[in-house]
Write a structure and sequence with these properties.
Layout (H helix, E strand, L loop, with lengths): L1 H14 L4 H39 L1 H15 L4 E2 L5 E2 L2 H15 L12 H4 L7
Antiparallel strand pairs: 1-2
Helix pairs in contact: 1-2, 2-3
Length: 127
């Protein structure tokens, strides 16, 4: 019901300026709706946690399926090489990841040119 009143006030605000009483009512209703939403979210979270604990304790098969699903989701089946092809074994994937980050995170090449700060005319500041 509060959401319906807020909707009507929003529609009215599109056509005219709301009175101070209407603005106050809208603000109070909005706060109440947000508070109820927080309570409902917490209630659902607690209910889901209780359900999972209940099912997990009573049914180890359920628990193992959940854990294995997470393990499958987090598993990298294959990686594409930079040049061509795919790697699938654990050692090949580790080597490919190592070579990628070694190439990406290496030190930048040495610069052969530098700024001539005196010619730029920038005032120097000492700390």
């Amino acid at each position: 019901m509060a959401l319906e009143v807020i909707l009507r006030l929003d529609e009215a605000q599109g056509h005219r300026q709301l009175s101070p009483e209407e603005q106050s009512l809208r603000k109070r209703l909005k706060l109440r709706v947000q508070g109820l939403a927080v309570i409902e979210r917490a209630r659902r979270s607690q209910a889901a946690r209780l359900r999972e604990l209940k099912l997990g304790d009573a049914n180890t098969n359920f628990f193992h399926r959940r854990i294995n699903a997470r393990r499958r989701k987090n598993f990298i089946q294959r990686l594409k090489k930079r040049d061509a092809g795919w790697v699938t074994t654990h050692d090949e994937k580790a080597a490919e990841i190592q070579s990628h980050f070694t190439a990406t995170m290496q030190r930048p090449p040495v610069r052969h040119a530098d700024f001539n700060w005196d010619l730029l005319g920038i005032q120097q500041h000492t700390i």
